[in-house]
Specification:
Structural class: mainly beta
Order of helices and strands: HEEEEEEHEEEEEEEEEEEEEEHE
Number of helices: 3
Oligomer: single chain
Distance between the termini: 34 Å
CATH architecture of the largest domain: Clam
Strand content: over 45%
CATH topology of the largest domain: outer membrane lipoprotein receptor (LolB), chain A
Shape: globular
Length: 326
Amino acid sequence: MKNPVLPVFLLFVLTFQAVGAEPNTQSHARAYDWLQRIAEAPRQQNYHGTFVYYADGHIETSQITHRVDHDDEYDKIEVLDGMARIVYRYNDEMKCYMPGSKKVYTETRWFRKFFPDLLPHPTERIRDNYNMEIDGQERIAGYDAQIIKLIPKDNLRYGHKFWIDIDSGLLLKAAVIDKEDIVEQYAFAQLKIGKDIDEESLSTESISTQNWKQVDLTTVHLDEGELKWRLGELPAGFEKLAEMRRKLAGKSTMIDHIVLSDDIATVSIFIEPVKTDDTPPVPGFYSSRGAINIYVRELENNKITTVGEVPLNTIKLIGDAVFAQQ
């Protein structure tokens, strides 16, 4: 079954064949340092470019402008194909403009995950779940790129391939791989790094929002154990990052939300009560575009929806691990 829960910004571009890889022992150690650069570079660089998302035969083009001013960051991300969407970000404060429906969604971002800012700061536990290799160099959008491969040690997660600008450390292209198949790709088609970016290019004043509906998507972060929901045995490598209550688009009440990660893949668990006048949830698997899989089950009159960029067997193991504290 198809479900419209999608990563908003992903991309694709053709590249040339990679040149020879380093020996594994040396490659594994250096690859971890490159992952650190991927995590740091988007927070330190000005950049402006156009990137493409490709998955399941679908291509979507977006334009991004990112500016750093001392300790402050600013983003503008505009989807150029299909339904118009424009996201503005100032540090963790985000606004998403939807001209078609005349709505503005505001939210405090709780987790970074917009290309090219895809990775948190990795920890040593990545080594427990992935083999890391340096795999030659290619040229992407006019920049020399170092290629890094993450090869999963089990069938619980996808593989990943990253193309990183050698000078700045900025991620230029990323692919999610299931065995030998590319599940989805992101890549810059055009990019300028390190140029001055004026404030006007990141201003929202050019958008007329008269008579638009303002929707505030509230997030309340909770301490460990505040939710009544607990997690049993999890797939190897996955740990809980946070628990919270969130106001989501289209929902009338706050939803319980638990987030897990293996330092690369992220999985969310959404838990909401099933009201007597609601249509009963249909348990089972739902497919989304690209790497995102969805698993739904019902527990004690609650709908548990597990969503993440992991294979179906992993999404089920995580969804089935949820239980209510008595």
